[in-house]
Write a structure and sequence with these properties.
The protein is α/β, with parallel strands linked by helices. It has 2 domains: 256 residues, Glycogen Phosphorylase B (Rossmann fold, 3-Layer(aba) Sandwich), CATH 3.40.50.2000; 92 residues, 3-Layer(aba) Sandwich (Rossmann fold). Helices cover 35% and strands 16% of the residues. The chain is built from 13 helices and 14 strands. The strands form 4 sheets. The chain has a 7-stranded parallel beta sheet. α12 links the parallel β10 and β11. α7 packs across α9. It is globular. The two termini are 35 Å apart. The relative contact order is 0.13.
């Protein structure tokens, strides 16, 4: 069955599910972060809307620390079902994980510790299969959940990946992983070098020093490129992008060395309703939208660095000076990072004035708005 997504190129090469003689079920395993979870749910909605004999079970992994927005979003999924053919299962809590470790080590241990729970939950699904129950057709996993490929293999079903980041970043990971494993060159060796890399997914040469810091760290590169190596074991990769946005990057995957790529984006939640989130968050969203409505069209720069994005005081001040000098209108989700060597969600500053340049908020009245968590 062909899936009509927005991209014209996608319509030429659509993601095709096999014709189903009987109802089939996919297991969807997103990461716990909001940026991964929300887009995964939107992808689930698209899939079930395009095949009336498709069922999807989504496994939810809850972080062991407070993550503002995530808990309320999960509660909303439980309170307002997406579809009668979509089932959300919250996996049992895993043993307490030491939060005083690197984010990459924490992520690996956190997801790996859910492996047995996923296996048991899928076993219950397959044990209940009958003529009236859908058959297990495959797994769709998040980019950080590659260890779940092992579980899918045990059940004899294929694994696809839903990649929530752009195709350019996917190409970067594949290319750097190849440099490491084929040419035996550690990416971390590029740190502080003047090297420029010719990477197929980028039009221009890429200065090595501007690579993401996690890739210039030896342990970070080992973890991230370890995921990329396992991406190659999947049967296909669904990417939240579209041809008109990333034509060069998408064309670079036609070398036959990677699984088939399906640009299925843009995946957007255009009908979000935060009324379930409680009056405080609903009011916050209302205030933000009201402020935006008062600004001229296409005039506002939005600064938001993800559910785990936070900066130290020096960086905050530099961003503030840059915004002020630009003269542009802005909406800034400013959040305080957790203590160093601690894995936790950023928090809102009790008083943003303490980290912003003196008088910044007064000088930006009318053209800028600083908020905490962005709903």
């Amino acid at each position: 069955m062909n899936f009509a997504f927005p991209s014209e190129e996608y319509l030429k090469h659509p993601f095709v599910l096999p014709q189903m003689e009987k109802a089939s079920e996919l297991v969807f395993i997103p990461s716990a972060g909001m940026g991964h979870l929300v887009s995964a749910v939107e992808m689930v909605k698209l899939l079930v809307a395009r095949h009336d004999r498709l069922f999807i079970t989504v496994f939810i992994m809850k972080l062991p620390f407070d993550s503002k927005g995530t808990e309320s979003y999960i509660a909303s999924l439980e309170a307002s079902p997406v579809s009668p053919r979509v089932n959300f299962i919250t996996l049992p809590k895993v043993p307490v994980i030491d939060k005083h470790m690197s984010p990459n080590s924490f992520r690996n241990q956190f997801i790996e510790s859910h492996k047995t729970h996923v296996k048991n939950a899928v076993a219950e699904l397959t044990e209940s299969e009958s003529d009236s129950r859908p058959r297990l057709a495959g797994f769709i996993i998040d980019m950080f959940c590659t260890t779940m490929i092992d579980v899918a293999d045990e059940f004899g079903v294929p694994t696809y990946m839903f990649f929530t980041s752009p195709a350019g970043f996917l190409g970067l990971l594949f290319n750097l992983q190849r440099i490491r494993d084929v040419y035996n060159k550690e990416v971390s060796e590029f740190k502080d070098s003047d090297a420029e890399l010719a990477l197929p997914s980028f039009v221009n040469l890429v200065p090595a020093k501007v690579l993401p810091s996690v890739l210039l760290d030896k342990d970070g590169a080992k973890a991230i490129l370890g995921y990329a190596k396992r991406f190659r074991e999947t049967k296909g990769i669904l990417v939240n992008t579209f041809m008109e946005l990333e034509s060069h990057a998408l064309d670079s995957f036609s070398d036959g060395e990677t699984p088939p790529l399906y640009p299925v984006g843009p995946i957007l939640n255009l009908k979000s309703d935060d009324s379930h989130s409680g009056s405080e968050q609903a009011q916050q969203k209302s205030d933000v939208l009201e402020w935006l409505d008062d600004q001229p069209p296409s005039s506002v720069v939005f600064l938001c660095f993800g559910s785990l994005g936070g900066f130290g005081e020096d960086q905050v001040r530099e961003i503030a000076w840059g915004l002020e000098r630009s003269g542009l209108r802005f909406l800034w989700s400013l959040r305080q990072p957790p203590p160093k060597e601690t894995v936790a969600s950023p928090s809102d500053y009790s008083d943003p004035k303490a980290v912003l340049p003196e008088g910044f908020l007064d000088r930006s009245v009318g053209i800028g708005k600083v908020i905490g968590w962005a709903p």
